[in-house]
Amino acid sequence: MRFHSSLSDSESSTQAVEEIVADTLDKHGDKIDVAFFFFSAHHREVAAQVAERLWLELDPQCLIGCSAEGVIGADREIERAPGMSLLVGHTPGVRVHPFHIRTDQCRELLVDPAGLTELLGYGPRTRAIIGLGDPFTTPVNQWLTRLDEVCPNAPLIGGMASSAQGPNENVLIRNDTTFDEGFVGVSLSDEIEVETVVSQGCRPIGRTFVITKARENIIEQLGGKPAMAVLQALVNELPETEQQLLQNGLLIGRAISEYRENFGRGDFLVRSIVGVEQSTGGIAVGDHVRVGQTVQFQVRDAATADEDLSSMMGAQKPLKAAAGGLLFSCNGRGTRLFEQPCHDIVCAHQQMPDTPFAGFFAAGEFGPVGNRNFIHGHTASFALFRAREIEKG
DSSP 3-state helix, strand, coil percentages of the chain (rounded to 5)? Predict the structure, then answer.
């Protein structure tokens, strides 16, 4: 199994695609089974022609891609400037199944499990689904819930296209066809391992609490006390250095499993605190909550995000080296969060120097926490590809 990543920052769409095609054929060769292609808004108007050229000249079994605010590839991140990024792979023994879900198909497929799994190409040997959606036409929460139910052994990794300000402005690609709505992706099955890394870039503060009264997205009580009173007491107990971090905003992590005695990195789904309910002393969060869940307040800053990503990528080192990887980084990261450019891709290469990566800055990132799929914000979500050991009977 081999992968190769190519990147061009040329303003000319013609020159950019020529550069990535030439580099791919020269350094990888023409044995290409799967290709992932990401491009900035500067190339959006000619996306159909570019996709057709990639399809004809590289001759992959499948090609998926989307437009983005910025792209990631090789050892660089290109933000708010012209860019094309391509990751190609020769994946013998791997079944690749590209798909596109139209917006007008969504409601029907949500109540048709057999039809959905057939369209996705999902089966007992499916290892993962790489998905790219249009945020204006994809019913994300319903899809993620349904995928958890009908594709329980295949995590979804990917992101939302981010080059548009409104509907029908993003571009999605499946093979040699472009779309301005819906959801595209590829399911990967058989002799491949897909390891996921979801770095939410947060650090817990204080201790954990159990929700004792809640409705919809409002936490009314924590440990039998008004949630705001608990939060205020927690803030007053924090050292001044940590209180300063609250200027960047306060978040809350919901434990994926309430059955652990101790919680650590990766055990929480992090969501924003979106408001306060003065009448009840409740806290409104960007998620549905219920009584009995364990939560912990969280903070995020550049140093915390750097430490979290380095730690989570470093945890992959004991495994065999990844042959290739995809990186879906929030468009709120990059130089909007870090002082130095190219932070996430540099961190990835520090931990995996020989692994080619490609990706883009997304308007929402897909990645599993625990055994469930979620859409995140301010997250770096990775898919790491490795050849699967052949199972002996």
Answer: 25, 40, 35
* 189-206 pLDDT, tens digit each: 999 999 999 999 888 888
* Three-state DSSP class for residue 104: helix
Mean pLDDT of 35-41: 98
Q: For residues 379 and 344, what is the distance between their CA atoms, to the nearest angstrom?
A: 10
H/E element, 196: strand 192-199
Confidence band (pLDDT; 50, 70, 90) for 390? low
Q: How many residues does the chain have?
A: 393
Amino acid letter for position 317 = K
> Rounded to an integer, what distance in angstroms lies between the CA atom of residue 184 and that of residue 270?
26
- Pull the structure tokens for residue 345: 């891709």
- Going by C-alpha positions, the residue among 107, 158, 168, 99 that lies closest to residue 134 is 168
Tens digit of pLDDT for each residue in 51-61? 999 999 999 99
Q: Which of 284, 299, 325 is closest to 244 using CA atoms?
A: 299
- Helix, strand or coil for residue 3? strand
Q: How far apart, in whole angstroms, are the C-alpha atoms of residue 205 and residue 215?
A: 24
Rounded distance between C-alpha atoms, residue 136 and residue 124, angstroms: 32
Residues 11, 42 contacting (CB under 8 angstroms): yes
Among candidate residues 75, 52, 77, the one with its CA nearest the CA of residue 65: 52
Would you say 77 and 345 are in contact if contact means Cβ atoms under 8 Å apart?
A: yes
Q: Which phi and psi (to 5°) does residue 190 adopt?
A: 75, -120
- The pLDDT of residue 392 is above 90: no
The H or E element containing residue 228 is helix 227-237
